[in-house]
Amino acid sequence: MEPSGTAEAAKLLAQARRLVVFTGAGMSAESGVPTFRDALTGLWAQFDPQTLATPEAFRADPALVWGWYEWRRGAVRRAEPNPGHRAVAAMATRVPETVVVTQNVDDLHERAGSAARIHLHGSLFAPRCSACAEPAPVPDGGAEPAEGRRLAPPRCGRCAAPVRPGVVWFGEALPEQALEAAVEAAYRCNVLLTVGTSGLVYPAAEIPQVAARRGGTVIQANPEETPLDAVCEVNLRGAAARVLPALVR
Ligand code: BJW
Ligand code: ZN
Predict the structure, then answer these.
(1) What ipTM was estimated for this complex?
(2) Which residues, other chains included, contact 4 with Cβ-Cβ below 8 Å and sequence gap of 6+?
(3) Which residues are annotated binding-site positions?
(4) Which CATH architecture best describes the domain 1-32+81-121+174-249?
């Protein structure tokens, strides 16, 4: 059974002229990439964000943090885009002015063929120097550590400081150009589809709210209620891999 609202959402999407697809961790859940805040399966149910996802954590124990991110990068490398990622890519072929704004640090949208995408929280595949910000090579595949293993980060080729993951940690500013482009796209769009995000982390959670304030129609795909429900015209209560393909049939 399709969740209620599917036909209405499909119709709204068919009328979209400028579309933003705004995604969070739930988008990749069915690819086997864990979310952060789901009660049993989320990363934060098992790992402490304060000791892994802050600049202070990296300074205190770079090998713990680097090992954790390399473990996650290995898992993402082995994951495949799911039918939801492919449906998002299909939407862009129907609505040429489509922008995918993702909070995800995986590369599953790009592997599914989505061209115009913005990574608000960085990427597991863009390590850089923690001191001079020089981009560093992505470590060779196949050597990622097991869960919970420390791994000393490589050193910057320019200044020898430790290389850090190219992600946005708590308390850090989002990449300026990415945030600007995302706000601009939300400002201009007439339909925004938000998928698999808890809508709790700011400033990213502003993006659907900007679209709504500007008169855009916001559609949500999420099995659970979120604070974004309030600005959504249609709430599709279902998993991304099942709900999104039904919107582009
Ligand atoms: C499915 C599904 C399926 C399941 N299909 N759906 C107090 C109040 C307000 C703000 C703050 C505050 N204290 C601190 C702040 C600021 C802070 C913040 O927002 N904190 C809140 C948590 C309270 N924000 C920041 O620090 C940001 N920076 C900042 O504010 O800078 C200010 C500044 C300016 C200038 C100079 C300096 C500073 C940065 C935020 C960075 C977030 N980073 C992370 C980690 C990235 C790296 C990594 O991967 O480790 O980003 S945290 C984590 O949360 C990750 C995600 O991108 C982000 C959002 O999570 P997401 O994607 O929504 O996942 P979940 O798990 O929360 O939700 C999954 C959803 O999917 C659920 O709804 C499920 O139901 C659903 N789902 N299965 C569809 N199959
Ligand atoms: Zn450097």
Answers:
(1) 0.96
(2) 237
(3) 69, 72, 103-106, 129, 132, 156, 159, 196-198, 222-224, 240
(4) 3-Layer(aba) Sandwich (3.40)
